[in-house]
Amino acid sequence: MRIAASLKLLTFLVPCAFLVPVIIAFAPDLNKVWNSEALQNIKTLFISIFLEAAPFLLMGVFLSSLMQWFVSEEMVRRLTPKHPVGGVLVAGLLGIIFPICECGMIPVVRRLMHKGMPAYIAVTFILSGPVVNPIVFTATLLAFPSHPEITIARMALAFAVAAAVGGLVYLFVKRNPLRTPKAVVTEVKTHPGFKMASSPHSHKPTHTHTHSDVHAHSHGSTHDHHHSHKKDWRSFFIHAGDEFVDMSKYLVIGALITACIQTFVSRSDLVALGNGPVASYIFMMGFAYVLSLCSTSDAFVASAFSHTFALGPLISFLVLGPMLDFKSTLMLLSTFRTRFVIGLSVAIIVLVFAGSWLVNFFG
After folding, report:
1. pLDDT of 236 higher than 50
2. Are the C-beta atoms of residues 291 and 263 closer than 8 Å to each other?
3. Considering only CA atoms, which of 117, 55, 64 is closest in space to residue 91?
4. Residue 211 above 60 pLDDT?
5. Which of 227, 262, 336 is nearest to 47 (CA)?
6. I want to staple 115 with a disulfide (CB 3.0 to 4.6 A). Which of 76, 166, 281, 312 is the partner?
7. Distances (CA, A) of 60 to 244, 263, 296, 297
8. Distance between the two ends of the chain, CA-based, in angstroms?
9. Tell me, what's the pLDDT at 16?
10. Is the four-CA dihedral 207, 212, 217, 218 of positive or negative sign?
């Protein structure tokens, strides 16, 4: 069977052989393009963005795998606060205990949601965790040593925006926003559709599959069928590798597009667009979205604009970037439904704009 499959793949590789003469004929021109200054900048920026984010993504993947192995659904339900206000407050401060960058946050939260964490708590954790943590707090203090109010405003506004968005999700989102619902669980005790046979002589359990169960089973991710797997280190690393490959492809695409934008759109042109009381906020928020910097390093980029922009636009850059940027948008779209991601993005942008404007007004 493997030999037959390999022979089928060869049929797709045969047309590629005709490209070899073309590549040889245009080799000098291709060499010039490959060594051009713009392409060198793209390669440098792409590698720097990817290498900056990859360790944090890897950290999140390993933490997600550990949660899959050692955190049960019953534990998640038991530790989750019952009251929504308490749940939002606890989720907003979880970043202090789990200081994960936004690149590694999404696989962790996806795993927790599959184990029973409510969507509003998960969203609050996604938004606040990359900012409200000791690593980002220290990095922001080092970037603005003479302006501690910037660090305080960043932490406070990030927590407020995350809590507000979590509250909105609790009020208006009534269905599971995950793109890939949880697969049909084979364990009898935890299956929501499990029922005992009605006959008193029958001792075999029967499953009643709902429409959502069938849909989840037919479209579910292969990463969620771990109930039948043996829990050993080999399976652990296989799960971690699958998660990393699944999420890293969106990181690669986001990093590549971000590098192209940074190469072909000069920073001076972007600054010229930001002159104005409202345009400065829009520019800094858009700049944070395009740059897609890690939350542990974006403060040093923002410090370069400290003599050009006021407090409010700087805070909008520091708060929006870790919550919503290009690469994280692709990761969110791979995890959540498109309509949910659009609504979440709009809520984040509006709340960050309003909050940073208030910080600038009262600051």
Report:
1. yes
2. no
3. 117
4. no
5. 262
6. 76
7. 9, 29, 15, 18
8. 69
9. 58
10. positive
Mean pLDDT of all residues in 324-335: 89
The confidence score (pLDDT) of residue 154 equals 97
Q: What percentage of the chain has pLDDT greater than the value 70?
A: 69
Burial-class residue 13 by CB neighbours within 10 Å (0-12, 13-18, 19+): exposed
Q: Which long-range contacts (CB under 8 A, 24 or more apart) does 273-281 make?
A: 274/309, 274/313, 280/309, 280/310, 280/312, 280/313, 281/312, 281/313, 281/316, 281/353, 281/356, 281/357
Alpha carbon separation from 37 to 34, 47, 270, 354 (Å, rounded): 9, 15, 21, 40
Strand partners, 207: 194
pTM for the model: 0.66
More confident site: 349 or 143: 349
SS (H, E, C) the chain: CHHHHHHHHHHHHHHHHCHHHHHHHCHHHHHHHHCCHHHHHHHHHHHHHHHHHHHHHHHHHHHHHHHHHHCCHHHHHHHCCCCHHHHHHHHHHHHHCCCCCHHHHHHHHHHHHHCCCCHHHHHHHHHHCCCCCHHHHHHHHHHCCCCHHHHHHHHHHHHHHHHHHHHHHHHHCCCCCECCCCCCCCCCCCCCCEEECCCCCCCCEEECCCHHHHHHHHHCCHHHCCCCCCCCHHHHHHHHHHHHHHHHHHHHHHHHHHHHHHHHCCHHHHHHHCCCCCHHHHHHHHHHHHHCCCCCCHHHHHHCCCCCCCHHHHHHHHHHHHHCCHHHHHHHHHHECHHHHHHHHHHHHHHHHHHHHHHHHHC
- Within 8 A by CB and 6+ apart from 262, the residues are 41, 45, 290, 291
CB-CB contact of 330 with 172 (8 Å): no
Residues 6+ apart with CB under 8 A from 9: none
